[in-house]
Please model this.
Amino acid sequence: MRKITVSGKDEYEILIKSGILGSCGEHIRKVTSASRALIISDTNVFPIYGQTVVASLEQNGFKVASHIFPAGEASKNLATVEGMIKALCENELSRNDIVVALGGGVTGDMAGFASAIYLRGINFVGIPTTLLSQVDSSVGGKTGCDLTFGKNLIGAFHNPKLVLIDPETIKTLPTRYKNDGMGEIVKYALIKSEELYNTLLNCKNIDDILTDVIYTCVDIKRQVVENDFTEKGERMLLNFGHTLAHAIEKYENFCGLAHGEAVGVGMLCITKTSEKCGETEVGTAEKIEKLLNKFSLPTTFSGKTEELVNIMLYDKKRRGDSINLVLCEKVGKSYVKPFPISKLGSFFVEGK
Ligand SMILES: NC(=O)c1ccc[n+]([C@@H]2O[C@H](COP(=O)([O-])OP(=O)(O)OC[C@H]3O[C@@H](n4cnc5c(N)ncnc54)[C@H](O)[C@@H]3O)[C@@H](O)[C@H]2O)c1
Ligand SMILES: [Zn+2]
Model:
């Protein structure tokens, strides 16, 4: 078993092990004296893994209930969060009880948010089942949901009590979502680790090294969130590619490109432009495109520039008339650059 401890105000462990789902109750029991557990999951994940988790929790003395919502980003809204809160009330969860978020990033973000605001905060455990959620969203305590104005515009920082990563769950993940997770993995390589970039580029079969890659990415995220939990500085680097990605996702009403796919496109687009502006080592965009192609990720997007820019005005990285853009200096190195909002359109059009 691999273990990563995220230090800080609410220290927690991330355990990575094939098959850990079957003993999740045992691990969760070690971090809580809760009598009740509410599993929050979606309509795709619960039928596959729900019973394993229920059984393990019951074996470890929890009174278990579950709440299932319709799978997909289109569900990531306040109405779904309200449904979760109602389920918490109906099942009489008290302050020392626990929520178990079983699913991808959509489940984890919303179940974490419901846990953050129910009774002003109860504990939750993350059991991420997509590659994207295992390497990214389950770590770092960002929870929330989308608003009609844009993505992830409401939320709270609320750390999990424990995260259990079972790489076996990736086997049932549709190929599209496995590739989607690779979008965020490529991001880690570009912002922080040339070594990871080379590993990804040279590997014959990603499945052979997936557990190691998950560990590497989680550890990069651990370092970043330990240094800057509330995203005042270094944590912004994790948003590489995200300004355009979030705009595309919203533009397509969260029914088009998936998050990691959009991030890939966003990273490539901004790097094409930053390379032309002399901010990025020449050849970097080509290196990005190579990896995106390798993992069958899209490299182009559609959408009217004006509308995309209008959406970007609501980006959380905006500060008055400027926006903090994350740029890649070269593979493995990135930085934040404040950029005037008024020039955003031309900046992204360049890279299209
Ligand atoms: N909180 C953060 O720091 C953070 C970071 C990155 C992304 N996110 C958020 O994460 C979300 C994307 O997460 P996601 O890609 O996991 O989306 P998701 O939760 O919608 O999962 C993708 C699809 O895979 C299905 N699925 C999940 N696990 C499965 C499995 N093991 N087998 C079969 N099907 C499975 C889901 O039902 C869904 O249809 C976005 O909303 C994004 O904003 C948050
Ligand atoms: Zn992301």
Q: What stands out?
A: The pocket of nicotinamide-adenine-dinucleotide (ligand 1) is lined by residues 42, 44-45, 48, 71-73, 76, 103-107, 109, 129-130, 132-133, 136-137, 140, 142, 152, 169, 172-173, 177, 180, 258-259 (CB under 6 Å).
